């Protein structure tokens, strides 16, 4: 039976979304009624669409009944996660031809890496790259010549952007095609050890670079459980992957078989078949609750407290932080993957992975079984895992018991009784905290504030030795309207060093932290943001702040009347350079963090 809280939260999402969801579905049905695009294109339009295709494809595309699959890809060869996509279009096109169809590379979308831009000006474009990707996906699909679409993307803003763009074409079947994680390098504990030594000035840059190169060493997604791998988990629990596709490593026979299976399955669920399963039917209130349950049960990325809200809105569904907080209070944490544990996603996959997580959530009544997926009706299909039988792709039941209790546990014997996220409220606004990586003894911090208007100011104070004390770092003017809401993950080593020295340390910010948020308690995504009149603009050095992750409270020991009477700080401008001047309209249009910080939708 469904857990009563899961049922209640789902029902209130349905009620809250009734009007917007009905409008979305009506638009998708109208788009469906226009028939496949190529059938209504003029001869000149259609000839343009396949002028450069191989002769065999051209002959097939002359037939108005022959289906055509769109490929939208985030390929580039700078980023390890997306480099494997170079090979995918050829695999997909070959599989489509074998099925009597064609596939076309409809368009590419940008793919920037937060790991490269951490602490750099480019990070101020990162969140808005999600909205650019959504628009780029719409540009690719607006040629209106396709029966289905395959989305090739993995990392932080890329999957949410592809999702939002795909939602605008929700009358089409859409399958997300992952590339898989790189093989494991050095241990995460060793990587963290060298980073901490470097932050203390006890390791050289050459030693740090050598360590990082041994960690990030080949093609595939970074193996820690950050936003990229949380994306893959969510796509499976949303029913948008083929079952078990998320964590199969690149350039292996099984990975290639799953890639070839995606266009074949997309053709089987296109309009006109008995299995028609458009994006708009797969993605609904229940499937989004399933994605949230997976995020909470596995200790996933804090970035999804933004992305899920924006993704849901694209499909006419309204989700709030309160929904996520209520689900977190009843969803046990059943996975520990770095940075919440010591092992990486490859070890998670080997221990039972997504098949085990799906089974546990369904058996505990924490996920909806009665959903449509690209693999067919019902989420139980996703407790199976793929393997090759004489070169043929087949699925079998995944493990019913964990193969490593240090990584995965059953829902009735979890690592902790609640999920990995908590809503924080109080006189400083609303924010979220990732608790799954924070030890219980660090979840309540009360200390004087040290206020910084950018992250470099905090790092400079660290280098000067000014942080050897109990403190709550307030890093403000980092919200979407101020500077694009960059991740502040580069602060983690410095703050972690002070925590390890025995000081009480916490972070409060209207910026983001990271999918790799770790051991330092951090109240993030604070809204209203400082640049939009939020209370953080009035905090001063020495104000005592209390962060209580257990109670979900963020307090300041200053009377509210006195706090709001203070002259607010104004922050610093960072609107030009590194392309930031091109994104001014997005900063001005961005909604608050608690609606997804998206520039594509109205803030309300």
From TrEMBL:
[4Fe-4S] cluster binds at residues 155, 222. One of its GO terms (cellular component) is cytosol. This is Phosphogluconate dehydratase. Keywords: 4Fe-4S, Carbohydrate metabolism, Gluconate utilization, Iron, Iron-sulfur, Lyase, Metal-binding. Binds 1 [4Fe-4S] cluster. Residues 406-597 form the Dihydroxy-acid/6-phosphogluconate dehydratase C-terminal domain. Its cofactor is [4Fe-4S] cluster. Its EC number is 4.2.1.12. Residues 67-380 form the Dihydroxy-acid/6-phosphogluconate dehydratase N-terminal domain. It catalyses: 6-phospho-D-gluconate = 2-dehydro-3-deoxy-6-phospho-D-gluconate + H2O. Pathway: Carbohydrate metabolism; Entner-Doudoroff pathway. One of its GO terms (biological process) is Entner-Doudoroff pathway through 6-phosphogluconate. Belongs to the IlvD/Edd family. Transmembrane segments: none annotated. HAMAP family: Edd. It is an enzyme of class 4 (lyase). The keyword Glycosyltransferase does not apply.
């Amino acid at each position: 039976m469904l857990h009563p809280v899961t049922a209640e939260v789902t029902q209130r999402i349905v009620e809250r979304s009734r009007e917007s969801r009905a409008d979305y579905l009506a638009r998708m049905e109208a788009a469906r009624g226009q028939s496949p695009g190529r059938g209504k294109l003029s001869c000149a339009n259609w000839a343009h669409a396949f002028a450069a295709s191989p002769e065999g494809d051209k002959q097939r595309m002359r037939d108005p009944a022959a289906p055509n699959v769109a490929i939208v890809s985030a390929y580039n060869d700078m980023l390890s996660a997306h480099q494997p996509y170079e090979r995918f279009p050829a695999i997909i096109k070959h599989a489509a031809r074998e099925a009597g169809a064609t596939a076309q590379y409809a368009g590419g979308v940008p793919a920037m890496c937060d790991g490269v831009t951490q602490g750099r000006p480019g990070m101020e474009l990162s969140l808005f790259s999600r909205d650019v990707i959504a628009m780029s996906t719409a540009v690719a699909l607006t040629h209106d010549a396709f029966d289905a679409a395959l989305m090739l993307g993995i990392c932080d803003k890329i999957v949410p952007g592809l999702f939002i763009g795909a939602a605008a074409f929700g009358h089409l079947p859409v399958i997300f095609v992952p590339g898989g994680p790189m093989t494991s390098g050095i241990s995460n504990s060793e990587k963290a050890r060298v980073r901490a030594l470097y932050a203390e000035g006890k390791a050289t840059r050459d030693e740090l670079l050598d360590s990082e190169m041994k960690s990030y060493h080949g093609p595939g997604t970074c193996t820690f459980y950050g936003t990229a791998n949380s994306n893959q988990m969510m796509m499976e629990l949303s029913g948008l992957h083929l079952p078990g596709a998320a964590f199969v490593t690149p350039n292996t026979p099984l990975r290639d078989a799953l890639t070839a299976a995606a266009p074949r399955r997309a053709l089987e669920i296109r309009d006109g078949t008995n299995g028609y399963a458009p994006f708009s039917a797969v993605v609904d209130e229940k499937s989004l609750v399933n994605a949230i349950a997976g995020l909470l049960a596995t200790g996933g990325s804090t970035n999804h407290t933004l992305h899920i809200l924006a993704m849901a809105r694209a499909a006419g569904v309204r989700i709030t932080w309160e929904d996520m907080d209520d689900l977190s209070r009843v969803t046990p944490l059943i996975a520990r993957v770095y940075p919440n544990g010591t092992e990486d996603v490859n070890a998670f996959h080997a221990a039972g992975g997504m098949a085990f997580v799906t089974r546990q959530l369904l058996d505990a009544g924490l996920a909806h079984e009665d959903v449509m997926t690209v693999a067919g009706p019902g989420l139980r299909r996703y407790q199976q895992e793929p393997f090759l039988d004489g070169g043929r792709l087949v699925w079998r039941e995944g493990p019913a018991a964990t193969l490593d209790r240090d990584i995965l546990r059953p829902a009735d014997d979890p690592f902790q009784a609640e999920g990995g996220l908590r809503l924080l409220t109080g006189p400083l606004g609303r924010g979220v905290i990732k608790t799954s990586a924070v030890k219980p003894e660090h979840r309540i911090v009360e200390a004087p504030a040290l206020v910084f208007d950018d992250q470099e100011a905090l790092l400079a104070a660290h280098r000067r030795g000014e942080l050897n004390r109990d403190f709550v770092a307030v890093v403000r003017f980092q919200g979407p309207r101020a500077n694009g809401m960059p991740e502040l993950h580069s602060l983690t080593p410095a703050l972690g060093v002070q925590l390890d020295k025995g000081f009480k340390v916490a972070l409060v910010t209207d910026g983001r932290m990271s999918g790799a948020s770790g051991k330092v308690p951090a109240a993030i995504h604070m809204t209203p943001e400082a640049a939009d009149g939020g209370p953080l603009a009035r905090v001063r050095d020495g104000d005592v702040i209390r962060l209580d992750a257990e109670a979900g409270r963020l307090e300041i020991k200053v009377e509210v009347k006195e706090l709001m009477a203070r002259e607010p700080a104004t922050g610093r401008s960072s609107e030009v350079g590194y392309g930031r001047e091109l994104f001014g309209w997005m900063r001005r249009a961005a909604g608050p963090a608690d609606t997804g910080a998206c520039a594509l939708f109205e803030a309300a």
